[in-house]
Specification:
Shape: globular
Keywords: Flavoprotein, FMN, NADP, Oxidoreductase
Largest sheet: 4 strands, antiparallel
Family: Belongs to the nitroreductase family.
Radius of gyration: 19 Å
Strand content: 5-15%
Organism: Arenibacter algicola
Number of strands: 4
Domain Nitroreductase: 9-186
Protein name: Nitroreductase
Structural class: alpha+beta
Amino acid sequence: MNSYIENLNWRYATKKFDASKKVSKKDLENLLEATALSASSYGLQPYEILVVEDAAMRSKLQPAAWGQSQITEASHLIVLANQSTFGEELVDDYLNNVSETRGIPSNDLQGYSDFMKSKLMPLSESAKATWTARQTYIALGNLLSAAADLKIDTCPMEGFDSAQFNEMLGLSKRGLNAAVIVAVGYRSKEDKTQHYKKVRKAKENLITHL
């Protein structure tokens, strides 16, 4: 646990990446595996993970992210895209996977199916979009922690025009929305922010024991 805390203290929102350094295929696969293993409400994972490595595409996306250098200088850009809406197929597809993976007859899962649908289907369209977007942030937390454990630098970013990202990445026509993005790579020696002391609330102001 001490090394885990040390790694979390080591990480920071990298402002300038070393464009000459690339995350290895193995490390990228491990990072994505950790992200895919993230918890989600009911286990439904109502989002997709896009890995943008193509330099031309990232140059195209950069103006839609306020021109931030991390978009093009990082090794990879990861986009967590939530489902804009969903129907009963979200639950059905998940439970089909459960049935196949665990060898459970579909009929035995009917009660759980009815329960999930009773909670999710009545949601308004805006509430559905908000709920699926929240799930991406659970995955984001896992991604950042896993990257720190691998000594890979990251910069989570909300400063971008999601509508433009959706258009350029073809997300809208797939029923997806760019919720949050993460630049992944290795810090540049020129990034002065790596030397800043980490600032967090004092534990007594953040944590309450009841």
